[in-house]
Amino acid sequence: MITVLGSEVVLAENITMVTEFLLLGFSSLGEIQLALFAVFLFLYLAILSGNVTIISVIHLDKSLHTPMYFFLGILSTSETFYTFVILPKMLVNLLSVARIISFTCCALQMFFFLGFAITNCLLLGVMGYDRYAAICHPLHYPILMSWQVCGKLAAACAIGGFLASLTVVNLVFSLPFCSANKVNHYFCDISPVIHLACTNTDVNEFLIFICGVLVLVVPFLFICVSYLCILRTILKISSAEGRRKAFSTCASHLTVVIIHYGCASFIYLRPTASYVSNKDRLVTVTYTIVTPLLNPMVYSLRNKDVQLAIRKVLGKKGSLKLQN
Questions:
Q1: pLDDT tens figures, 261-307
Q2: Domains of the chain (ranges plus CATH)?
Q3: pTM, two decimal places
Q4: Which of 63, 109, 130, 268 is the most exposed place for a label (fewest CB within 10 A)?
């Protein structure tokens, strides 16, 4: 016999199964949440405007129709959806007393969040390979990074990202969740949710750790090897200007890689038993809010091609307004 009571389902064996979760988020901060709402809303709008600007400029300026900027456009698109999965719900919860999320919605949020996050990791690896091909094998670059190859690589990143996400979400939500339903986080992340399971989670956590190694460590090592080859090639360039120009095309990518992989590795490449809510929440804010904000800033402020393209697009719009 099954009885439904509020957010719980009580089975005949007196085991209470959770049907809803309570996202604690920043509730312990009291009135400071209003200030956080204003700050996070501003940052979210900045993320949207920055990434939309990058996507639009790459689409409109033909000089940016190259593999490097194709992948940057895909990354910006993925970052936009990545933040959309988390931030709107977080902003609503900052102003709400009832921070309820259903069991199904929690699983879906984790699935899409991890899907886009892992896709981003794989895309950064592919972007590292693109820089390697461009600098180390410039004569073969048109063949190595043809549009057909670029399309297949982008599709592989998305498919691989969401398949890995589906695996992890299945490992988390296949566990039984009994009476505990308070998620000590502002969204349904792996560690705070799996902590609520009312059974031994060692096997599931180990398999999730293996997935983390595959999607974080393997692409990062691939990027490191790519940049070692790039560095060796750059050092062989005789002119200082040539070396500076070659390295400048990699600096933006390296900056994003260090921040993204650094924060993600800190959270996911360790046992969930070592989860510390306040410290981990701060790091999570970095890779869910700061990193998506830094991507367009880094690529626009440090990249002269993007800066020039933005000025060209804005100049065209200005001239059209004058003509009208």
A1: 887 777 777 766 555 566 667 777 877 888 888 877 777 666 677 77
A2: 29-307 (1.20.1070.10)
A3: 0.86
A4: 63
